[in-house]
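Cross-posted from the bioinformatics board.
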Amino acid sequence: MSDNLTLPAQQSPAGASAEPLLTVEGLTKHFPIYGGFPIKRKVGAVQAVDKVDLTVGAGESVGLVGESGCGKSTTGRLITRLLEPTGGKITYAGHDITHASRRELAPIRSEIQMIFQDPYSSLNPRQTVGTIIRSPMEVNGIEPAGGREKRVRELLELVGLNPEHYNRFPHEFSGGQRQRIGVARALALQPKLIVADEPVSALDVSIQAQVVNLLQKVQQEMGIAFLFIAHDLAVVRHFSQRVAVMYLGKVVEVGDRDSIYNRPRHPYTHALLSAVPEVAVDDEPEDRERIRLAGDVPSPIMPPSGCRFRTRCWKAQDKCATEEPPLVRLSDSREGHLTACHFPEEPTTEARDEDIVLDPGLKALEDENAGTD
Amino acid sequence: MPEQPYEPERAIAGTGMGGQMDLGASEAVTLEKPPGPDGAAPEDKPRSLWSDAWHDLRRNPVFLVSALVILFLVVISLWPSLIASGSPLKCDLAKAQEGSQPGHPFGFDGQGCDVYTRTVYGARTSVAVGVLATLGVALLGSVFGGLAGYFGGAGDAVLSRITDVFFAIPVVLGGLVLLSVITSNTVWPVIGFIVLLGWPQISRIARGSVITAKQNDYVQAARALGASHTRLLLRHIAPNAIAPVIVVATIALGTYISLEATLSFLGVGLKPPSVSWGIDISAASPYIRNAPHALLWPSGALAITVLAFIMLGDAVRDALDPKLR
């Protein structure tokens, strides 16, 4: 059985570096909305994820960031095949798994694992920690050397829990400890890829660092590729080698960490980065740009035509409404840094001559403050 | 797949950090479990949610009283001769409607039968109908409702409409129509009728409960591992969805007992010479002025039995699912 689990691509590490572990092309998920009386019919669709392209290399950590409701988690669940894609293609190690059945997925299940956001609902309250961590091995019929129980104890120790707590129930652990149990469950089968769906956003800030460090350690020591979904830009910056920025179901910018954080081109990325709070040391004048967006993310049921960010963008022109910008490498960008924008920003996060404040109320407030200064 | 060696010693980079957290946890656990005289579970065998519920129940006086009454009822329905020496069918018309006498504490009914003996033997019918009908209803309802809730789709829609149809049948009218054509004088037609009309109630509850449970991330996590439908249902969903079914079934048990009495009273449930509280109440009601005792004893027994089961259901609900209170 265990022989079948290793896919051809992993046996040749040289080939793996050339071909990414996971390739997502044009991935689309539309949730239908039913309505009408007396016969319910499809009246629309929530376009949660729309034509997303993404690659994750073997052992690479890719961050996926964006506002709440932009389709990050849906993307993660599509890749782990918890949701059925509406369109597009998911290729894992050379295998097309877009519409693979449960049986066809069986050998791949052990290689793609998921860590969930909520450490409270992701562990079955009726099972002991030992049972929870053992179940991946049971489901996939894996019998590790020394027995499953020994392996569970090793895993508990690996994630920094007391192996003697094998028989305890999840409700006896704190949030951070529960998330460690979730990590141990994901590691039980020695996966090649872990989709971490906001693994630390439900945790205390003091615990977040511990869990992030734990994930980073297993990523580096075990060479596991990560798709790290988060809305916390600082955590993603710490954890990911490459970062993809999502807005309203689309990837608007993708590139290596340095490109995204220091040389962003898409206006939305600029706005996101400028919103990260930063402690100003001494009385140094702030040298970062400041952008205040107005309003909410538009409805994914009727997304704006053309560029989806145009309704909140300060550079939007007529072209943005009629023509959807492709995700391409711009002239001043580095290799592998792709941006979907007709009118990209300068590749810098330095302060602008004037702050961009799109919210009229906020603008009035700031002008007033500036007047009294 | 290639075995990757783990090095537990190196496992946690931040030294002492793991140890500190474990210390916190063991403190919390010891606080939860004060050293009790009842010889609590050993240190590494903490309470599950079920044993938590049992822990609550043992300290609930409502549960203790109702459980004692029910235990007593079960014992006398299995071995009625323990407390009643005569036969419930031995009647002496000469003693009809006579009051309490030595050896016949409850007096005699309109046919001259001993009311005490008949009341004791009547428990067997009630307990049998209540327990068996509840088992049937719970089994049928949770299987249908659970599968409908889990798989959803067209099967779920059809099942929901079927339950609606059954809800629309008036219980007593349905009983009069369906049971009057059955000649068999055993408890089985009555049990069958109650199961037929009772399962939609449990089915709805099981369906809702399964829909709630299947959305939990731990079910998604198990799916992501490639778990089969059977495993998901039996290991993850059923244990987390069963509590409301148990609660409603326990409370319904009492109402099924009174439903059996109602049907027997109307003459479509059990018929003489079977022994049932419903038959006795029906037979004694014309003589309520002359011999009220013949009516009061079986009625009182019925009331106490139904009350005991409903109180048990309440106590179980409080212990299993405090949110429903």
